[in-house]
Amino acid sequence: MPFLRFLNQIGSPTEQLLQQSGLPIFALDDPEALIPFHQACLFIAEAAQHEGIDNLGILVGQQTQISDLGRFGRLLCQCLTLEELLSTVEQMIHTYSSSNQMWMVQEGDRMGFHHQCQCPPTFASQQIELYVVALIFRAFRLFLGPDWQPIAIHLQGIPSQKLVSNTLFSNTPVVFMQPSNAIIFPRTLLSTSRRISPLSCRSDHQNDYQFLQLSAPSSDFDESLKQLLRSLISDGYPHIEQVAELTGISPRSLQRHLSKSGLSYSNLVDQVRFEASVHLLKDRSIKLIEVSTALGYSDAGNFTRAFRRWAGVSPRQFRYQCG
User: How far is Cα 180 from Cα 177, in angstroms, rounded to an integer?
Assistant: First the structure.
């Protein structure tokens, strides 16, 4: 979403680029929606190449507010010290992204806050890495002021004069070809408190924490496939060719994998639609026609027939039985 905002500001054809990368456009309306990391990288790389911006990740990261990261960002904005913020990122990043790792390492009187992208090194992954490094800078500066610079910056990529001369890095030694990206800083800074008190209510902390834990990207293939389907169903029936492309395998390989789990693709879609319908029907403020639309049915009658097949009763009867 931060990349979309930036590209819209400079007049980039974002909708065309989203379609080319195979990203479900509607899913980007929800800051908590899970989308395929491979397609997100592809979109960012195509946008960078289309606009001729080699350091797109840095430019977007510099403009992104921590609060733009949905519930994850809100958790970070509630942290009272730099150590609490970095520890929260380290512990919770898996709930936000299954393809990024972050961790702290003590090196004498220095600390290194490290980041690694769990995908092959490409132009696309480099843009993600630069974005994350720029975003970590913003997090540090919440506590240390807008002009703060670290002792050093480590980057995994090859040496680049353009990066060294970027204003974000201009006053800091940059070391390339490192095993992970990292910001190196004095250990004494960990106890630094926020210069401005957090605006978010810390009483929401537990709710955000629980939500992120429950909605975290799954490391299990079958469950991650269901998460992908949940993000697609409101746009209609997600065809297997589309889902296979988003998972990076062939339709035949996808069918073989599901067969080993005792599933067919159509059964899996039914499972996802049924689970989503039960969740929505329990909320009486949502009309039945809205439930039908949210599940990708253009005809409410088709939804009613499908739900009766799944549950043995109509959606209206099910809602009545739930009280």
Answer: 8
C-alpha distances in angstroms, 160 versus 55, 170, 175, 176?
A: 10, 12, 10, 8
Short-list 96, 94, 113, CA closest to 105: 113
CB-CB neighbours of 126 under 10 Å:
25
Give me the helix-helix angle, 251-260 and 265-281, nearest 10°: 70
Query: Where does residue 3 rank: exposed (0-12), middle (13-18), buried (19+ CB within 10 A)?
Result: buried
**In this structure, which amino acid lies at residue 110?**
R
Enter the pTM of the model. Answer: 0.79
State the DSSP H helix or E strand holding residue 154, giving kind and residue range, or none if neither: strand 152-154
Taking each helix axis from N to C end, the angle separating 37-51 and 2-9, rounded to the nearest 10 degrees, works out to 20
The predicted-structure confidence for 307-318, as pLDDT tens digits, reads as follows 999 999 999 999
Q: Quick one: tokens of 67?
A: 């609060």
Which residue type occupies 316? R
Residue 129 amino acid letter: E
pLDDT digits (tens, 9 = 90+) for 86-103: 999 999 999 988 889 999
Residues 6+ apart with CB under 8 A from 198: 77, 78, 79, 80
Tell the burial category of 46 from Cβ atoms under 10 Å away from its Cβ (0-12, 13-18, 19+).
middle
